[in-house]
């Protein structure tokens, strides 16, 4: 798996999107999952339950990475179109995430980007003037 870096203009409040500020600390992933769940119920009510769970897992993994490895502030932006869903997490680090070998013994992670990739997400990083935005784009089906 590779992550790519791409340049796009940041538009956090596009039609069909919701931008959620993220708090620091261990509660951020669970708050992000709850916000994503509410958003999905409102915007994608017919989303397959398995795909719904995939989205929440990817949200949790990307937010956990942002909270664990970068200083704040951070945001989660969810954007839906007819056929896709974009999960985007911004943070203040300019360093692109890099997949690493998962640590299955000490529990120090390394699985988030692999999980997103295994679930069919297209991962890419958008450089921003004050950090980056990591996207995980998924087909809605």
Polypeptide structure, described:
It is a single chain. The chain is of the alpha+beta class. The protein has a single domain, classed as 2-Layer Sandwich (Heat Shock Protein 90). Helix content is about 30%, strand content about 30%. It contains three helices and six strands; from the N terminus they run E-E-H-H-E-E-H-E-E. The protein has helices spanning about 30-45, 50-70, 110-120, and strands spanning about 5, 15-20, 75-80, 85-90, 120-130, 130-140. The chain has a six-stranded mixed β-sheet, with helices on one face. A hairpin with a 2-residue loop joins strand 5 (about 120-130) and strand 6 (about 130-140). Helix 2 (about 50-70) runs antiparallel to helix 3 (about 110-120). The radius of gyration is 14 Å and the shape is globular.
Per-chain topology:
Blueprint (H helix, E strand, L loop, with lengths): L3 E2 L11 E6 L5 H16 L5 H21 L4 E7 L3 E8 L20 H7 L3 E7 L2 E9 L2
Parallel strand pairs: 1-5
Antiparallel strand pairs: 2-3, 3-4, 4-6, 5-6
Helix pairs in contact: 1-2, 2-3
Q: How is the biggest beta sheet arranged?
A: 6 strands, mixed
Tally of helical segments? 3
Q: What Rg do the Cα atoms give?
A: 14 Å
Give the spatial strand order of the biggest sheet: 1-5-6-4-3-2
Any idea of the CATH topology? Answer: Heat Shock Protein 90
Poorly predicted runs: 5-15
Mean pLDDT: 84
């Amino acid at each position: 798996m590779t992550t790519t870096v791409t340049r796009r203009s940041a538009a956090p409040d596009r039609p069909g999107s919701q931008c959620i500020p993220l708090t620091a600390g261990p509660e951020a992933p669970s708050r992000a999952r709850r916000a994503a769940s509410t958003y999905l119920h409102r915007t994608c009510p017919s989303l397959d339950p398995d795909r719904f769970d995939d989205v929440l897992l990817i949200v949790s993994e990307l937010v956990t990475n942002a909270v664990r490895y970068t200083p704040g502030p951070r945001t989660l932006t969810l954007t839906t179109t007819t056929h896709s869903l974009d999960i985007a997490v911004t943070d203040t680090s300019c360093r692109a995430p890099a997949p690493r070998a998962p640590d299955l013994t000490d529990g120090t992670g390394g699985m988030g980007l692999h999980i997103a990739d295994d679930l069919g997400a297209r991962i890419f990083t958008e450089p921003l003037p004050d950090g980056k935005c990591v996207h995980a784009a998924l087909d809605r089906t």
